[in-house]
Amino acid sequence: PIAAMGLVLLILAATVVVLTAKKRLAAICGLGGVGAGVALIFLVFGAPDLALTQLMVETLTVIFVSLALPRLPTLNQEKKPLPRRIMTACLCVAVGLLVTSMLMGIGQSPLDRSLTAFYESKSYLAAHGRNIVNVILVDFRALDTLGEITVVILAAWAGIALIRKPKERHP
After folding, report:
1. Nearest-angstrom CA–CA distance, 171 and 159
2. In angstroms, how far is CA 67 from the centroid of its own chain?
3. Residue 41 CB: number of other CB atoms within 10 A?
4. What is the dihedral sign for C-alpha 13, 19, 23, 26?
5. Alpha carbon of 12 to those of 1, 16, 64, 92, 112: distances in Å?
6. What is the 8-class DSSP label of residue 45?
7. The dihedral of CA 106, 109, 114, 117: what is its sign?
8. Distance between CA 61 and CA 32 in Å, rounded?
9. Helix H segments across the chain?
């Protein structure tokens, strides 16, 4: 979809902001833009549950990093020698190409549909649900889903505790 292409351009622009940032806060904002773009891509392709989880995790990550930011030393402004920067860039491109080629290779192999067939056949009969994804999350993997929700809520509470100002103690 055209919306996905626009989001990919947004993610690329945010990545450029991260790579060229002179200040840490700008880099953190760029990382937040990358995460929000990924969440919106999930939303465009019909995965609102993943989009919500991605957005929550991204928001908490930006909060935690922003709170730790004042305690970090300043960025080193001295530039590395050109050969070292070229070597680092080549290493980054090589790792990116390796991961991309591995993912594309995995995508070319035939998909084992036996697990899909099981859930399709059992979701309505065993759990009385028509939405297979909801049946899997609520009935077949309920404890796993409860654990994931617990982790996200605990992380949100930790974020709230870090944001709040400490109360003054009375002698």
Report:
1. 28
2. 19
3. 20
4. positive
5. 17, 6, 23, 15, 33
6. T
7. positive
8. 8
9. 2-20, 24-44, 48-68, 82-108, 114-127, 132-135, 142-163
Evaluate whether 22 touches 52 at the Cβ level (below 8 Å).
no
User: What's CA 58's distance to the chain center, in Å?
Assistant: 6
Q: Is the pLDDT of residue 7 over 70?
A: yes
Q: pLDDT tens-digit profile of 51-96?
A: 888 888 888 788 777 777 777 777 666 778 889 889 999 999 999 9
Q: CA-to-CA distance for 35 and 50, rounded, in angstroms?
A: 12
CA distance 70 to 18: 18
125-163, pLDDT tens digit by residue? Answer: 888 877 887 788 778 877 887 887 888 788 778 777 777
